[in-house]
Amino acid sequence: MTVVVATADFEVYHGVVNELRDRGVTFTTVEPGDPLPDGARILVRAESDAPPDADESAETDTDEIGDESVETVVADPENPRRAVDEALARLRGGDGRTVVGIDPGTRPGIAVLSGDVVVAAFHVPLADVAETMRREVADAVDPVVRIGDGARLQGSQLVRELEDVPVELVDETGTTPYLGTGARGMGDVLAAVNIARLEGELVEGRDVQPTAGELQVIKNRSRERADDNREIDEELARRVASGDLTLEEAMDEHRNGDED
Known about the structure:
- This protein is of the alpha/beta class.
- It folds into three domains: 89 residues, Rossmann fold, CATH 3.40.50; 106 residues, YqgF/RNase H-like domain (Nucleotidyltransferase, domain 5); 48 residues.
- Helices cover 36% and strands 21% of the residues.
- It contains eight helices and eleven strands.
- Strands 8-7-6-9-10-11 form a six-stranded mixed sheet. Strands 2-1-3-5-4 form a five-stranded mixed sheet.
- It is elongated, with a radius of gyration of 23 Å.
């Protein structure tokens, strides 16, 4: 038995146990202070629980239990998933660093890795990516977001929106895998996994000048979404491309301009 949950905190216990069960992880539970079973490698407990057979004042994430070294993960009752992510990453020998890979586009694929372990995946609209990232890297130690260098306009928008976390731009050549039968729709997420595993260039911004073709795509999208077949002008399309406006805001501005 490798993962042991030992806590008197009701919320931590149920949150962590449910996460472990959902992922099919074999684990056992003991009362705080009881001896740990043979083979224990990871101990999950709450901040309020004293380390087993260890000095309560010791600030360490490793407890010496008998002749064995057991790594300790302290779980937050508000975020049991984070504790389970860390436990599994340590169990598999990863360094536990949170790395997020993004395959940019109008609906980016997102993969969250803890060490070498994929702990979460998303496929969300572009407008939801920044908030998803902030939630995933909150309280993470030394996180990094790696964005593929394709889909230039969407990628540059994400770089701007993620200014509060280190961002690397990654050469995404060859990151999209072949998709066999039954895997349709998974390409963006699997590409994000591959992007997360590639080191890139640390960037603070990405200045991209949209091409005429890219501007026309934005204008076409505005016409497709408009009830009256209305198409925004090039200036508004350029502001959408730069991230100053969303497409919906540009459409409203164009409509209001005609009404003035």
